[in-house]
Design a protein that fits this description.
By secondary structure, the protein is α+β, with helices and mostly antiparallel strands. The protein has helices spanning 4-16, 19-22, 86-102, and strands at residues 27-29, 45-56, 65-77, 119-133, 136-147. The chain has a single domain (4-147), classed as Phage minor tail protein U (Alpha-Beta Plaits).
């Protein structure tokens, strides 16, 4: 049976360590602070947050199919005076995270975290929240990991 921590750690390393993602964020981590606790100078910031896992049972005596879930939550700080549109930052981050998770570059085009999982994919959505918190915007990218 696969253990959870190496899977979450591998996903965090994959995403946070990707040069395209790293170039977009000042702060990264696996501990999600409240948006108000992230100072403007710490933004853009990207955090990974675990969600409940799901299990699907196919029949009596058959091990369940387990899916781990998490989200990458990005905080952006923009002021209208500096000319940066929140959507521009959000879209660049969404593209970078999507590319790392969805395009591993192998023949099957399936991200397996080095064989720890059967498949990593974005589900159910990439959700931008542009400027809803005054100068702060949020991007939530939900990720699922199917465990063998």
């Amino acid at each position: 049976m696969s253990t959870r921590e190496p899977i979450y750690a591998a996903l965090a390393t994959l995403v946070f360590g990707n040069p395209a993602v790293a170039s977009l964020f000042v702060t990264t981590g696996r501990l999600l602070p409240h948006v108000e606790d992230v100072a403007p100078e710490q933004c853009p910031a990207l955090f990974m947050f675990q969600h409940p896992e799901t299990r699907t049972y196919k029949g009596k005596g058959i091990p369940p199919a387990r899916t781990l879930h998490c989200a990458f939550v990005a905080y952006f700080y923009t002021l209208p005076a500096n000319g940066a549109l929140p959507a521009t930052l959000i879209n660049a981050a969404a593209d970078a995270i999507d590319d790392v998770v969805s395009n591993p570059g192998n023949p099957g085009n399936v991200q397996t975290l080095g064989g720890l999982v059967e498949h990593v994919y974005i589900e159910p959505a990439i959700a931008p929240y542009e400027g809803l918190l005054q100068e702060k915007s949020v991007l939530v990218t939900s990720v699922a990991m199917l465990i063998p």
